[in-house]
Amino acid sequence: MAVRRLDPVLVDQIAAGEVIERPAAAVKELVENALDAGATAIDIAIEAGGRRLIRVVDDGAGMSPDDLALAVERHATSKLPAGDLFAIETLGFRGEALPSIGSVARLDIVTRQADAPQGAAITVEAGAKGAVRPAAAAKGTRIEVTELFQAVPARLKFLKSDRSEALAVAEAVRRLALCHPEVRFALVGDNLTPFTLPREAPGEAGRLARLARILGRDFPDNAVALAAEREGVRLHGHVGLPTFHRGNAGAIHLAVNGRPVRDRLLLSAVRGAYADVLPSDRYPVLALHVDCEPRQVDVNVHPAKSEVRFRDAALVRGLVVGSVREALARAGHRASTTGGERTLDAMRALFQPRQAPVSFGWNGARAMPSPTLDMANGAGASGFGEAGQADFTHFAAPSADALPGEPASGEAARYPLGAARAQLHATYIIAQTADGVVIVDQHAAHERLVYERMKAARAARGVPRQMLLVPEVVELDPVDADRLAAAASDLESLGLVLEAFGPGAVLVRETPADLAGGDMQRLVRDVADALAESGEASELSGRLDHILATMACHHSVRAGRRLRPEEMDALLREMEATPFSGQCNHGRPTYVELKLSDIERLFGRK
Q1: Is the pTM of this model over 0.90?
Q2: Which residues pair with 230 in a beta bridge?
Q3: Are residues 266 and 413 in the same domain?
Q4: Alpha-carbon distance 33 to 39, whole Å?
Q5: Which of 51, 49, 258, 259 lies closest to 168, judged by CA?
Q6: Fewest C-beta in 10 Å: which of 357, 373, 494, 596?
Q7: What angle do CA 504, 510, 511 make, to 5 degrees?
Q8: How far apart (Å, rounded) are the C-alpha atoms in residues 257 and 238?
């Protein structure tokens, strides 16, 4: 077949397929044009998920009639003034998105510059461009896209339901709104909940207010501010606490030079920063902005500009991982404030009135039914009787200075996690703070403390070791034994010294000092499982941290061990001084806090 030049309209339709694959992509391109035009207010309306109508109205600079005629032509733009493709300082190319959209739909544009006596309008339908004509218009630009993909109906069958497409439009608008809090955004349409995001004040307070409107009102109380710079690359934003997480990656918001992206390098860096503080099946909540000189990043590696390529990818990844880890460490022992709310919700369920059979007391008087509490003691549900409170009896005296009925003061008021008062079921520590109560999972808390202590020791001088008086032989599967023998040099830096001892066995000579007296058989088997899980190809530091976390998890203070008052207080004090102690090595919270005002509302006192 002979080579021929494609029809210009067909060329536009091919280009549209690369950029405008769904209504949300068209909305993104149009809103980016409005932002590049300096808009301070952008109104978006859609119908049928954007398939039937997309309307974007802004109060930006507008266009002259001559500019309007060129804006719907291929390869015409106002956004490369120097003609340098590697110095892009805008979000999009107005002269590229508009002809692409106009080739697959009907496109109507009305625009006026501030000093122009009247506006101008143009219509493009299925690639056919009309003439520019005078029109009455307010300052700014109004763009309507109707019957998207009418010129290429085959693409309609690849669209999802109207509701799914509408939700995708809302998500695209929210991501752009997070990057530009100084702009008012409004979205209306069917199949979605309309929303308006007002303009926010400049500075960090305004950015945090916009984040609260989009990520939820709980986010500011569960986030840490971040600002760092290295070799001309600046990183700033807010990262959520590890215990404030979601079930998918939808709450991870990343931007490069004001452009929302879903870049694999940045996503990988974020996952690496949360590696040992977040469950593997959970995702953090955060908003990070990377600002750099335009020549340091190529935004044209993806047709929709959703991915970018940095000139120095290792620099950017290291900056993200290091800065996020430093911010989380700065949060210290903080845990999510939503943990207390979930605890209160569970307690309210216990206090719901239940239908119980009528019973009579010893004197024949009618007895009122009472709620029951499951004390999780293995003997079924128990009430408020002595059996349910048996775990309090081992205290000879209160562990701090407050007497029953007195407000928290002295020792309790001096510390964020308060003073220990009791131990429930040899598992949970109850502490009194200045304005509430803290419930600590003693095993989860000690697990994190041991892990952080061992990590710090490994980074400084190697984990302290203790030699066994009699070396211990551990029999294993031959594959696991070979794997342990191959990793012997790495394990030695972690305080575990072992060697091959015939087929299917290893000989343990030294163990980490913090784990002395533990079950060596179980320890070695746990380490073998951790090595198998992490794989030989994984990064060395990540593999070693995984092994340390496994050691700390299985050989810390176990649930079911009774602690003396001074031991409980010592655990609380060490938690306050240890970074990441708000969650265990698996990302579960180590404690929940209940404010006194919430407890009083629970009992109807307020």
Answers
A1: no
A2: 233
A3: no
A4: 9
A5: 49
A6: 357
A7: 95
A8: 16
Among 286, 309, 330, residue at a domain's last position? 330
Strand 286-291 vs strand 283-284: parallel, antiparallel, or unpaired? Answer: unpaired
Does pLDDT of 46 surpass 70?
Answer: yes
Please say whether the beta carbons of 501 and 473 come within 8 A. Answer: yes
Tokens of 288: 């990070």
Query: Helices 94-102 and 23-36 sit at what angle, rounded to 10 degrees?
Result: 150
- The residue range of the domain holding 261 is 204-330
β-strand partners of 283: 246
CATH number at residue 305: 3.30.230.10
- Taken as a whole, the chain contains a residue count of 606
What's the domain count of the chain?
3
Cα Dmax for the chain: 107
d(CA 62, CA 53) in angstroms, rounded, equals: 21
What are the b/e assignments for 384-397, b being 16+ CB within 10 Å? eeeebeebeeeeee
| 218 beta partners | none
Q: Give pLDDT, residue 78.
A: 64
473 forms beta bridges with: 507
- CATH code, domain carrying 145: 3.30.565.10
pLDDT in tens, 290-321: 999 988 988 776 666 677 889 999 999 999 99
Contact of 76 with 4, CB cutoff 8 Å: no
